[in-house]
Amino acid sequence: MKAIGINGSPRKKWNTAILLENALKGAGAQGAKTELLHLYDYNYKGCISCFACKKKTGKSYGKCAVKDELTPVLKKVSQADVIILGSPIYFGSGTGEMRSFLERLFFPLMTYTDPPGSLFSRKVQTAFIYTLGATQEIARERGFDNHIAANEMLMKRILGSSETLCSYDTYQFEDYSKVYAPRFDPEEKAKVRAEVFPVDCQKAFEMGTRLVREGKKAIKP
Ligand SMILES: Cc1cc2nc3c(=O)[nH]c(=O)nc-3n(C[C@H](O)[C@H](O)[C@H](O)COP(=O)(O)O)c2cc1C
Question: d(Cα 19, Cα 23) in Å, to the nearest integer?
């Protein structure tokens, strides 16, 4: 069983990456082979609307025809049994790199049927981890959870299953005393980092564990 993590944050050692590492540790503890890829390591664009993936008799039907540094990443994702995505929320949605990745992953698989269908035929377990600077209350007030819920629905529709983990009120800056950000109380941020973030890491670990267990059940019912 292969579990892949996709980090949509430019930072390889901060909140999103740490949560993904924990999720993959949980998957690894259940015997899965794990790999974490960082989208910012790759040079690529989002969907270019070439529609090669929609041409009925074309050799790229159901597959992204664009060849760039994302191509091997998409291949790895399509072969994984457990797919765990992670992204910070930037201005109310995932990062641009995560968005471009999702366009390339989902558009070839999505069918313009009524109701919309999916060409993805394998059983995979998927999850999306979000990190937000906002508290849960502010995230709700500003509608960030609408974007998160829409992504979960899309993942369920295209890949068959998905669950979501949100880590709120994250510790954004290495040193709050060096940045101009009067909205934040550095002591409060440090407290959340020390007390809440480890709980989120544990939830991520348990999620990784659960996804592999569910994946094994799906293979051998
Ligand atoms: C460009 C940018 C935009 C952001 N926009 C939001 C936002 O709309 N809502 C929010 O809650 N946090 C926002 N944040 C904060 C990040 O989502 C948060 O710090 C996140 O945990 C960073 O993830 P990382 O530590 O993995 O890089 C933003 C951060 C940046 C750099």
Answer: 6
User: CB 161: neighbour CB atoms within 10 A?
Assistant: 16
Separation CA 205–CA 87 (nearest Å): 17
Q: Does the CB atom of residue 151 touch ligand 1 within 6 A? A: no
Which tokens in the block code for residue 65?
A: 């025809």
Q: Which residue's alpha carbon is at the smallest distance from atom 6 of ligand 1?
A: 90
Q: Which residues neighbour 41 within 8 Å (Cβ) at sequence distance 6 or greater?
A: none
Nearest to 94 by CA among 158, 21, 152: 152
If you measure from the C-alpha of residue 170 to the centroid of ligand 1, how many angstroms do you get, rounded to a whole number? 8
Q: Residue 73, Cα to own-chain centre: how many angstroms?
A: 13
Would you say the pTM of this structure is higher than 0.85?
A: yes
**Beta-strand pair 117-118/110-111:** antiparallel
Q: Each residue of 121-164: pLDDT tens digit?
A: 888 999 999 999 999 999 999 999 999 999 999 999 999 999 99
Query: What are the φ/ψ torsions at residue 181 (nearest 5 degrees)?
Result: -155, 65
